[in-house]
Each structure stands twice: as structure tokens, then as C-alpha cells.
Design brief:
It is built from three helices and no strands. By secondary structure, the protein is mostly helical. It has a domain of about 50 residues.
Length: about 100
């Protein structure tokens, strides 16, 4: 019997949309560190890639690869959450 996937795709989508919104709002609100902006862009693109990857593996019926992609998505969402936290703590504006 297979273990349940790490999270539901709808949960990923909802969390990703919330994080995207928060990150974009934070980047617009203040003068952010350009490096942090590049990191945000990179991880948002990574999340988009993984969304497609999960969908492809799900349609192909390869549960192992789909589960691996879901695990990677969880890591990316955690990184995006950390970037939101850094921005909220003021670390995104060049402070260390």
C-alpha cells in the first residue's frame, strides 16, 4: 500500500497563491533588496514548474514520480514562506 501524498494539489495551489500575493505585495510596498527579488522570482518559477510536473506525472499514472514532485513542491513552498517571513522581518531591505 502506498503512503498518502505529502499534500493535496489543491492545498499546494491555495498556499502558492497566498504566498505569491504576499511576496508581490511586499516587493511593491518597499524598496526591496534586488537579490531578494531575484530569489523570489526564481522560487516562484520553480513552483510553477513543479505544478506542471505534478500534473504530468499524475496524468501519466506514475505515482512515485508524482509523489517526488509533491515533496519538492513542499520544500519550495517552505522556502517561499521563509522569504515572506524575511520580508516581514525587514531583512528583505538590505538589513542582515
Amino acid at each position: 500500500m502506498n503512503a498518502p501524498p505529502p499534500s493535496d494539489p489543491d492545498d499546494f495551489q491555495q498556499q502558492l497563491e497566498i504566498l505569491r500575493s504576499l511576496l508581490k505585495e511586499n516587493l511593491k510596498r518597499g524598496e526591496q533588496n534586488p537579490l531578494l527579488g531575484s530569489q523570489v522570482d526564481f522560487w516562484l518559477e520553480s513552483a510553477r514548474f513543479l505544478e506542471l510536473n505534478i500534473e504530468i506525472w499524475g496524468k501519466s499514472g506514475n505515482a512515485y514520480e508524482e509523489n517526488q514532485a509533491r515533496k519538492q513542491m513542499r520544500k519550495v513552498l517552505d522556502i517561499l514562506q521563509e522569504l515572506v517571513n524575511r520580508m516581514n522581518d525587514g531583512m528583505g531591505n538590505g538589513e542582515s
